[in-house]
Amino acid sequence: MDLSNLYTEVILEHNKETKNRREIEGYTHKERGHNPSCGDDITVEAKIENGIIVDLAYNGHGCSISQASASMMTDLLTGKTVEEAMELIRIFLAMIKREIQDLDYLEDVLDEASILQGISNLPARVKCAVLAWHTLKEAIEHKN
């Protein structure tokens, strides 16, 4: 299987995944993110206890890239400390901005989310890929 087929398969798989596409009862952090240029609209909810993200989910609608990225993010960051999550968000955003390009490192740290590295070559899709990540960062920084 070539890389573009793998990329497409992972995006489609995560776009269909619904285990983290839900609302969290008793969330501690919530933020809505919207991308007016393409219509992506997502709400991220997190339940953080003792500095650990014990539950993380998203809801809303958008293109397959925004939904798949949100799914990958929730899989990756659930169970992490807030500090670990913020560092992984920083690394993901740096990857998309091409500030970090070491694919082996990115695969080790970001797991499946590293497959979105190629989005940096598609400027119109960058906002789709980063929407959930920016939204969670805002939720953590500006606790609701």
UniProtKB/TrEMBL annotation:
Gene3D superfamilies reported for this sequence: 3.90.1010.10
Domain of life: Bacteria
InterPro entries from the UniProt entry: NIF_FeS_clus_asmbl_NifU_N
One example of a Gene Ontology biological process annotation: iron-sulfur cluster assembly
SUPFAM superfamilies from the UniProt entry: SufE/NifU
Pfam family membership, one: NifU_N
Domain called NIF system FeS cluster assembly NifU N-terminal: residue spans: 7-128
A GO term for molecular function: iron-sulfur cluster binding
Family membership: Belongs to the NifU family.
NCBIfam families, sorted: SUF_scaf_2 (TIGR01994)
Protein name: Nitrogen fixation protein NifU
Gene source species: Proteiniclasticum ruminis
